[in-house]
Design brief:
With 256 residues, this protein is an alpha+beta fold. It contains three helices and seven strands; from the N terminus they run αααβββββββ. It has a five-stranded mixed β-sheet with strand order 5-3-4-6-7, covered by helices on one side.
């Protein structure tokens, strides 16, 4: 009797195959849902990150007579001190040196160290003299700083509080393949939304503007922080409807 009970307790080959088939079916059903949950988690964390960057920038302004630094004083051959990652880490909070988008935290082999949908710009190595060891996955709206010495009359001249545009429409930080951007109404989207605009993937010889932010990190969207302290997910086509500077005129575009 004991031998017969032991024999009955086992599974037949057909029963095992049925169980495996059911498990495979459950995995196939749950995989899209799990992927969406992961994307939502990344998007939520990203929005929190850019909001923290925006708050740190606001704290910097309050501690420096309501002004930001003058970017134009730094030569291309001596970029030390020009990156926002040089300036605002002390305002991020105790123990926080930098914030990375959870969807773009990998390093790449690009000699110019441009980022992408999944990789950061820059790198920790000292071999890249241009970046000086800085890296990140967010970029600053560089019209906030003062570029008049370069002959550019656009922007806020280092005084964000003087912006004559709605603060909830003026981006401060956003997902980006470089450390910052100068966005203009005439900017075109990149051909490759996974790569964004880089010197190796330019947009009709212009890769300084919105195309740097137009990268598919959060299901055709990016995280954006605004001057009013808010931050949220913004669709890639919506980037052209924001007010990047007083001169920027919102427009509609269609992405491939």
């Amino acid at each position: 009797m004991a031998a017969r009970r032991a024999q009955c307790a086992g599974f037949t080959l057909i029963e095992l195959l049925v169980v495996i088939a059911i498990l495979a079916l459950l995995v196939s059903i749950l995989s899209p849902s799990l992927r969406r949950v992961r994307q939502l988690t990344h998007s939520t964390q990203c929005a929190s990150n850019v909001r923290q960057l925006g708050m740190a920038l606001s704290a910097y302004v309050q501690g420096n007579r309501q002004r930001l630094w003058d970017d134009s004083q730094y030569s291309n051959w001596n970029p030390s001190g020009r990156w926002f990652s040089d300036r605002i880490p002390p305002y991020l909070g105790s123990g926080v040196e930098r914030l990375l988008c959870p969807a773009a935290s990998e390093f790449n082999d690009d000699p110019w160290s441009w980022g992408s949908a999944t990789t950061v710009w820059g790198g920790p190595g000292t071999e890249n003299w241009w970046m000086g060891g800085h890296y990140g996955s967010y970029g600053m709206n560089l019209w906030l700083t003062d570029w008049r010495a370069m002959g550019w009359r656009e922007g806020l001249w280092g005084r964000p509080a003087t912006a004559q545009v709605p603060a909830d429409k003026l981006p401060v930080f956003a997902d980006c393949v470089w450390t910052g951007s100068w966005c203009r109404t005439t900017d075109l989207p990149p051909d490759d939304l996974r790569q964004g605009a880089t010197p190796a993937n330019p947009v009709t010889d212009q890769y300084h503007g919105i195309a740097r932010h137009c990268v598919d990190r959060h299901d055709r969207a990016v995280g954006v922080a605004f001057l009013d302290g808010s931050a949220h997910r913004v669709g890639l086509e919506e980037l052209w409807r924001l007010r990047w500077s007083p001169e920027f005129q919102p427009c509609d575009i269609t992405l491939p």
